[in-house]
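Request: Mind sharing a record?
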Amino acid sequence: MRVSSNRAFRRGILAGAASIAMLPTFAAAQVAEPVRDPNAPGTGVQSPEEAEDSFDASQPIAGRGGAAEQAGEIIVTGTLVRGIAPPGANVIGVTSADIEATGATTTAQLLQSIPQLGSFNQLQFPRSIGTDVTVNRPNLRSLPGFNQFGGSTTLVLMDGHRLVGVGITSTAPDPDVIPPGILDRLEIVPDGGSAIYGSDAVAGVMNFITRKRFDGVQISGNYGFADDYHQADVNVTAGRDWGSGSLFASYNYSEHGDLFGRDRDFIQSFPNPTTGLLSIQCSPGNVTVGGITYGLPFTTPPTPAAVANECDASDTSVLIPDERRHSGYAGLTQRLSDAISIDLRAFYTNRRTFAAGTPFRSQVTVNQSAATSSFFDPHQIGSETSQTVNFAFGESLPSETTLETWGFTPTVTAELGENWQLRVLGSYSESDTQTRQGAIDNTALGRAVNAGFVNPYDPSASDPGAVELLRNYQLFASARQRLEDVRAVLDGTLLDLPGGGVKLAVGAEYYSESFRPQTGNNIIPGTENTGTEPIFYNGVQIYNPISRLPTLNLTRDVKAVFGEIVVPIFGADNASSFFQELTISAAGRYDYYSDVGGTFNPKFGLTWKPVDWFKLRGSWGKSFNAPSLADNAAATATTLFILPSFAAPFPPAGAGYPTPQPGQFVFAVRGNSPGIRPQTATTWTLGMDVQPPVLPGFNLGLTYYNIELRNGIGLPANGNPNQAYLSFPSVITLNPSQEFLQDQIDQAQIFPLGNLCGTPPTCSVYSFIDFRKNNFGTFRTSGLDINVAYHRDTGFGSINFGVNTNYILTQKQSPGPGLPFQDQLPANFNGRLKMKATAGVEVGGLLSQVTLNHTSGYDLNPPLGFAGTTPSGQTFTAQDRVDAFNVVNLFFRYDFRGQDLLKDLQLTLNIDNVFNQDPPEYRGVQLGGFAGIAPAVNTLGRLVQFGISKKF
């Protein structure tokens, strides 16, 4: 439990650091920035001596620099020690030039271009409208569960600072709070980093490095369009650099339109693997009696039996919701004296996402009565007294999500003499996320139908007042999050050896986070804090009373101590044959969590240069990821789904399970299981870097990585629920009893479809699937990162070429203790190979560049989808392979080198997906995915974007 005096003390430290930033005593500015790794894709390679400590828009992007005197102050991501690259590590760098070439209008879109991330070659827009993950979280190494558990196995930093979490079921930060235009570079260490940074750095660390200085005013904007789609952004940055310091502020506005399944041919539903039907919740709808479905309208009795109406429900699915985003960012860098300097950053983002959603679709049981006789009797097939009607009706059910986040991150640096330095970093940030998603209460619908107010056979003949009452209903959820963080690091030279100085860094950190969710049910809009009494219509009760939604207050405190030592055994002063450099490092960190206890994580690194142009490196370490506060069993409402046969996940053919029968249902529950434990990992890497002197400007990097993730947090077979029968048999209950099902109904907090199937024998339930979040066994993966870069100056300008590749060698998972490992590569959702290849030429002020993004295909084992002839007469064979996805992008930039209005003027043109390539087809059932396309790829189609930038 937090102590108020401690919180006041922490806030006092943060406020004090911020106050120092406003002192008028100005002196020389100091910065501490990473360098670009030789393996990074792009047009050039930076050495520490070339690392920039100032941004001046008047300089060409490829030519900024001028910080050689500050090289000793550089802190590279992945180490606590100044002036060195982390021994044994592969640091991937993305410069401002690389960022510009992507045409990204948000930081999340930038992450589409990095093969080491699971988001490569996909669309990075707000993932969902509702209570699922509402931000795009980076996922290095494509570890499982990254969009399922509340935290993240990739740590996201901004200038070395942690950021507050964002979302309703997640506590991971949103990279989009950082506008791309304010970024100086992005550094990625795709290796375990808990020994340095603590929790979340399992697969690696991403550090977004922002501008340090700015002088003048810069205005830029982009406008892009594709079929039925547009996007635009405007950036304004203004600042002053007075030598000893710099102050600047930046504003960004971005927007994009919505895109629906009907707007893209590749978004499509395929026949249900069991019934061979598409959705039967259509307009006109369908009547089911005795397991036979009759398409409306029909006369009684239908002779011959009416063919079922089918429709593609994906036509109204939201591929991309409409979004409006406002972001502000400000920075102050100032040297107060020869010994003291400060750096202060502040940010604010407001995002509104809107989606028209889906039509009013449902299934309802209609009982014969005087109230329903006007529409039941004309459709009575025989002597039945009840019918099941599936239908779609009316306007769409709109949904809206709003997100607001802000924070500030002060840093105070003190030079202590004798090459020792103390850095105190603070962070305070908050976020507020709220979603309202249109919904239908099927219990209320059933009452309205059986009272005669709503006619499901011909919805247009329904009572408008009753329909409006049913539409005035929504799923509401909100969450407020807060992060307070104070970290102190002391580093310097401990002693001198023949190979160089032994560097030591020690430090401590304390941070506190809170998570206040309010969710748990569907409500009448505006009643989340009051609840409602029973609601009647024309004397008939339609809605049951609804209680006010409770607000939880979940908190945790974390205390940590850490250290790192770097020992140069061989260096410039004692280099010898085969030992130009030999450096070893050791780091360790102990974290104590107030809710899950303590953990210690070590890491060791080694760098060996037998010759100047050839380097070998390796690392080994342990990492962990504490369960997020959003993973607490109380944090998320338990939701029970009853899925009719046309939408239910059944086992693949030949899997050894009983054959599902027509009309059978599947019950599924989602939420958080109690007692979720931390994820832990062991990671190790081996690599080499080659810069042959016979080929100046050429760089080759090769890295082998190996990760074992234990107690992995996630959902069983989320991307392909059918696979749960094969890979996670422990979550399957076949032929559950009515008592078991009733117990699940009683425990559910959200029951969106109501009890559609009644009781046996009317309702036949094939299985119950526990899709709740939990720890699921062990995950092992290994692979290769291959980076090639070449840059050469020519008589006409320069040429460049680069390839960044990730290749998965092995990927296996055991779903639980004692269960065998299953090879996921024959049926994985990623493809083994992800590659980005870039070639460019610069002539005068014109840069032209072409990029190929490639995601390899993969086999499906067992095959997916319907096999046979559908009721409508179409013939299908099961899908046994997903094809590769290749996207070609073009980028052009022209820098005017004139005077007056043409000075510092730049024009850009991006043409993404030049050949309008569709994503590969995928016929599996996905929870939260897009119908018809593979989970690991997506596209807008061909997108053309124009940009302009002017510095004053």
Residues 4-264+319-357+400-436+479-516+553-633+675-715+775-951 form a domain with the Maltoporin; Chain A fold (CATH 2.40.170.20). The first helix runs from residue 4 to 20. Residues 339 and 417 are 9 Å apart (CA to CA).
